[in-house]
Specification:
549 residues, alpha+beta, Formiminotransferase-cyclodeaminase, Chain B, domain 1, Alpha-Beta Plaits, Four Helix Bundle (Hemerythrin (Met), subunit A), 3 domains, 4-stranded antiparallel beta sheet, 18 helices, 53% helix
């Protein structure tokens, strides 16, 4: 698996497009780095850039972006609503895939050292990259902001982790906070007020740090763990906001923060009118929120991912101030392979591609598609039953069935493409050179492995489609009677997929020179067909009883 990291630098310029574009161009000058988002803020005078890639190019891009920011931004002239200490204010590295937070922390420290040695930019290391426990907190590193740097750099206890004395270079560029962290969700909660003081009061109510005790002794903690928040007024929108960073989305999911800020605001006579996500979010943040609000509405959770995300967007009014496009805000959607497979085709396009003179997609992919339709129909009956008038008390029963159906549907859709991919592996092996004995042996071994895999994939299709039949049976027995025929067709489609996939198991197993691995595959395939046919009979018996009644 490739090691993939995300970098989310915040630059102290949100108004001059020429400067912002030059910084982004510096980042883009590194090959194999993909910029996902550029989010400038006029009131904050700050731009958040998000890019991903493998560790080495991402760190190089982060360095080039910081160098360009140092060249073009003069902190002596900078003013904005957001706390800041440097031209490149924060520079966090975030693990995405194949890499740990600890590895990102080591990379962050090396990057900070390089920024100081090569550019003369002093750096504080924060969160997972911190050298001391107290500096894990970004607020500690940035305390006093840019204006406090001369004093801090002269204080041995507060000086940067990498840096020397105050000089003209530092005066212009300020200090950069380099860190490593898990996904952070930056969100602003819109209030129906123009009062910064009222917004701050709500922020202090909920943020983990809370507020100073009026007695002067210690702090009164807020209600949300893993959050930092302040209140501010945004000229651009003409409203006050609670601006929050959720640093631990496990401790405080976005929807929990939204509900708690709404509660705290209401207690002070205010109302949260919506939320604004700054930068990007992991998909699970919106999926968790969508499921939460569906449960509150006593609606089935077994709907498509797109619909769940839509519920999250509408429930938290993420489109209150401007349109919210998940394809541009969810990190998984942005880094997904743009090449679409068979499952993403229109039904007509898939059918015509199957009908073409190409050998793939063939019976294996079509079998997976038939199984997918079986799972989809069983899921549909469950969702219709969950929404049936007078059956509100049974919504969870049907929601559970629909959720399981959605999982099977997702897997069968994946297997449509996987079956064709397994066929293409065989064709690739056949194209391998066979001029020498070594080449012939390598080709033979690769072909045997590819053929075995081509038999295993349709068996996966059979196993998955089989799981759709008990769902169809349950819906035929207890689901909406008006949809009984749909449950019957679900069973027929699933069994058609199973029997079709069995033929592909057999034909590929027959191509194996070593028959030992083929025997358990064939035995399991036969057993699945027997079990499927028995379930199909039960489903159709229930359906006929409903239709006859």
């Amino acid at each position: 698996m490739k090691k993939i990291i995300e970098c989310v630098p915040n630059y102290s310029e949100g108004r001059d497009k020429t400067v912002i574009d030059a910084i982004v161009a510096a980042i883009q000058s590194v090959e194999d780095v993909k910029i996902l988002d550029v989010d400038p803020g006029e009131a904050t005078n700050r731009t958040v850039v998000t890019f991903v890639g493998e560790p080495e190019p991402v760190c190089e891009a982060a360095f080039r972006g910081a160098a360009k920011a140092q060249e073009l931004i003069d902190m002596r002239r900078h003013h904005g609503a957001h706390p800041r200490s440097g031209a490149t204010d924060v520079l966090p590295l975030v693990p995405v895939a194949g890499i740990t937070l600890e590895e990102c922390a080591a990379l962050a420290r090396k990057l900070a050292e390089r920024l100081w040695k090569e550019l003369g930019i002093p750096c504080y290391c924060y969160e997972a990259a911190a050298f001391t426990p107290e500096r894990r907190n970004l607020a500690v590193c940035r305390e006093g902001e840019y204006e406090a740097l001369p004093e801090k750099m002269a204080d041995p206890a507060r000086k940067p982790d990498f840096g020397g004395a105050w000089n003209e270079t530092v005066a212009k560029a300020g200090a950069t906070n380099v860190g490593a962290r898990n996904f952070l969700v930056a969100v602003n909660f819109n209030l129906n007020t123009t009062s910064t003081r009222r917004a701050n009061a709500v922020a202090f109510d909920v943020r983990e740090k809370g507020r100073k005790n009026p007695s002067g002794e210690g702090w009164i903690p807020g209600t949300l763990k893993g959050t930092k928040a302040i209140g501010w007024y945004i000229d651009e929108y003409g409203i006050a906001q609670v601006s929050m960073n959720i640093t631990d989305i496990d401790a405080t999911p976005l929807h929990v923060a939204f509900e708690e800020v709404s509660r705290a605001a209401a207690a002070r006579g205010l109302r949260v009118t919506g939320a604004e996500i700054v930068g990007l979010v992991p998909k699970r943040v919106l999926m968790e929120a969508g499921r939460y609000y569906l449960e509150r509405q006593q609606r089935s959770l077994g709907i498509s991912e797109q619909e769940i995300v839509k519920i999250a967007v509408k429930s938290m009014s993420l489109d209150d101030l401007k349109p919210f496009n998940p394809q541009e805000k969810v990190i998984e959607y942005l880094i997904a392979d743009p090449v679409k497979g068979l499952a993403q085709m229109t039904l007509e396009a898939f059918a015509r591609e199957t009908a073409s003179e190409s050998a793939a997609p063939g019976g294996g992919s079509v079998s997976a598609a038939m199984g997918a339709f079986g799972a989809a129909l069983a899921t549909m009956v469950a969702n219709l039953s969950a929404h049936k008038r007078g059956w509100d008390h049974r919504w969870k029963e049907f929601s559970d069935v629909a959720e399981e159906g959605q999982k099977l549907l997702d897997e069968l859709l994946r297997l449509i493409d996987e079956d064709t991919a397994s066929f293409n592996r065989i064709m690739d092996c056949l194209a391998m050179p066979k001029n020498t004995e070594q080449e012939k042996e390598a080709r033979a071994q690769a072909l045997e492995a590819a053929t075995l895999y081509a038999a295993q994939v349709p068996l996966q299709t059979m196993e998955t489609a089989l799981k759709a039949l008990p769902l169809a049976l349950q819906m035929a027995k207890t689901g909406n009677p008006a949809s009984a025929s749909d449950a019957g067709v679900a069973a027929l489609a699933a069994v058609a997929g199973i029997r079709g996939a069995r033929l592909n198991v057999r034909i590929n197993a027959a191509g194996l020179k070593d028959k030992a691995p083929a025997l358990p595959l064939l035995a399991r395939a036969d057993a699945i067909v027997s079990e499927a046919l028995a379930l199909e009979t039960q489903v159709l018996t229930e359906v006929e009883a409903h239709i006859g009644a």
